[in-house]
Specification:
- By secondary structure, the chain is α+β, with helices and mostly antiparallel strands.
- The protein is built from 3 helices and 12 strands, in the order αααββββββββββββ.
Amino acid sequence: MNVTVLTAKTCATAKTALCTIQNFYLARLRLAGLCAAFFLCMLPTSHGAEVETLESIRLSAEAHALAQIDHRRFENASATANPLDSRLQLKKCNTPLETFSRGAMNTTSRLTVGVRCTGLNPWTLYVPVTISALVDVVFSRRTLTRGALLTEADLQIKQLALNELPIGYLSDPSQIANFELRRPINADTAIILSAVKPRNIVQQGQEVIIKAELAGLQVRMAGEALKSGKSGDLIPVRNLRSGRTVEATVIAESTVSVNL
């Protein structure tokens, strides 16, 4: 019977051979892992194609806000959407993004715009938008007293930022020409709608001209206004010749008209 005696030298040689084999396979595994990583890096990523960019959402919201502005009244208008959370990931919409908001943008400098996808992966996001613009506002040129009759010479136009507009501001001086002030106004003050009222161009007890049209002929009669009125008001007027009271429409200074 043959018996192999393992000496220390033999064991050392076997151990070295085993280590060599292990190192060989480990090297092969590392090489395979590197190759796999290389090819994965070379593959095109689908992440960007699957996620809607925050930029497209922001631009859609800003465009919608600008579309709500009456550019005939507002100058140098711009819209800036609030920053969106960079961690936000919404599915790429396979249809054009839709935008919406509640009500019309009048004088507010802030608007919340809804941006939504109605495609295969629907979602809705609300984006706060800040709007900047300059607006014409009517100001007084000088100090004016209560009851003063306004003329365009008393008024001037200044531009204010959208977020500085007073409630009830006016943009056109002709809107309030021949109106009177309800209260005193200092020079260089914005004139708001609640500070003025239409002036009565016919006063109670005043003698007026009554105009009428009969069979294509215009007739003028003298009358007495029984009530004060502004242009367009319907007031009672007494005919001074007949004594009869009629309802007449105020059409001009000291002048009314009736339908016969």
